[in-house]
Structure formats: C-alpha cells, structure tokens
Amino acid sequence: LLEYRKNLSYIDRKVSKVAFSRGTGNSSKNSYSTSLYIPAQWLHELKLDKNNNKVLMEFDGEKIIISKIKE
Q1: In degrees rounded to 5, what are phi and psi of residue 3?
Q2: Alpha helices of 1-71 — where are they, by DSSP H?
Q3: Distance between CA atoms of residues 57 and 26, nearest Å
Q4: What residues have CB less than 8 Å from 33, skipping those under 6 apart?
Q5: pLDDT at site 71
Q6: Helix, strand, coil percentages, rounded to 5, for the chain
Q7: Sign of the CA dihedral with 36 first, then 33, 55, and 60 last
C-alpha cells in the first residue's frame, strides 16, 4: 500500500480533532495538554510502534509535518 501511494503521489487525508485536557498536579490553573489521533495504519506504514516511537515534528507557520526519526 505504501509503495502504491508513493507511485501515485497519493496523499491520504483525515479530519481529526485536537483534544485539550486540563493540567493536573502542580500545574497552573490555566495549563493544559493536547493530544491528536493519528490513524494506526499511518503509524504502521512509518514502522512506528511502542518501542520505536521517536518522531520529528516540524511547523512552518501553516502546517505540522510529522516524520519518523531514522536511528
């Protein structure tokens, strides 16, 4: 599937929501953390799992790009 996508310049797009959670413990009352759902199939195609989970996040002012770090 991944090779097929590369050959066709195919971009898989999903609409998702960012989840906001209130801070806990000693954090200030205005603090929060965020999380974002990433489809498991995408993580599988990047060969990411519980033991191999390092990614590089890049932000250019308009887009966030997440890439696997090659170790």
Answers
A1: -60, -40
A2: 2-8, 40-45
A3: 27
A4: 20, 21, 23
A5: 73
A6: 20, 30, 55
A7: positive
Contact status, residue 55 vs residue 69, Cβ threshold 8 Å:
yes
Q: pLDDT tens, 58-67?
A: 999 999 999 9
Predicted confidence (pLDDT) per residue in 4-40, tens digit: 556 666 778 899 999 999 877 677 778 888 999 999 9
The single residue listed with the structure tokens 């199939």 is: 41
Find, among 12, 35, 3, 57, the residue nearest to 69 by Cα: 57
Q: Which token pair is 24?
A: 């806990």
- What length does the chain have? 71
In angstroms, rounded to a whole number, what is the distance separating the alpha carbons of residues 4 and 58?
Answer: 25
